[in-house]
Amino acid sequence: MSSERKKNPKHFQLNPNWAQLQQKLKSFAKPSRHSKNPQSETPNSILGKRKERPNSEPDDAKPNPLMPTNDDSSVTDVLAMDCEMVGVGQGNKSALGRVTVVNKWRNVIYDEFVRPVEHVVDFRTRISGIRPRDLRKAKDFRVVQKKVAELIKGRILVGHALHNDLKALLLMHPKKDLRDTSEYQPFLKEGRRKALRHLAAEVLGVEIQNGEHCPVSKMLIIYLFSKQLAKHEIITLKLHIKTWLIDLLCSKLVY
């Protein structure tokens, strides 16, 4: 564990959207403190100020749980991955449009738009958040596929419905190294899988994915649900962790 907390970890070039998200998170995390210097207040401001309740607590801003725990962007032993799809062919066929990978410290280590092999006929922007301009300079599918394969090799991979993401990447991963929240027994309803947004609402009381998806926050909420147990065990719920996946922040971003 200590070897992963390196002082000078290898950093990856991230998608601009993630930089925007981090800036938003930092702004939300800043405490709002009002000046309490009596000399700075005018008589009008004093008269117009509401009386504070004697038992009221100071309005200190709480740390934003979406922020990474540190600045370590190294490739850790546990990674979370999420993919967004676009429509090709007649539009009903899915192809990879974006892939994002996050390490165990909640830092994005890989985030790339992908140029599909086939012509895109439906960007599915309402769901994927992908727009035509995002794919103009996107990387070739084979380049992204190779990089993701290198990142996840020999590591625990966390995700929701990972079979769909791996299928889009045309990759395979050992079943013993998969931690899939969609297959976790306590989350199944009469043997059927639930959507991530339903799990978030029912288990955490968090409303997500109202609009365009943010793959980063989706992966963070997956981490909220999951915890690595023994090497060959499936995930279990982290009931003690704070609800630090608020996808509403991502809905405010402009892709």
Automatic annotation (TrEMBL):
It comes from the Eukaryota. One of its GO terms (cellular component) is nucleus. Residues 14-25 have a biased composition (Polar residues). Residues 1-74 are annotated as: Disordered. It is found in: Nucleus. Residues 53-62 have a biased composition (Basic and acidic residues). The keyword rRNA processing applies. Belongs to the REXO4 family. This is RNA exonuclease 4. It comes from Gossypium raimondii. The lineage of its organism: Eukaryota, Viridiplantae, Streptophyta, Embryophyta, Tracheophyta.
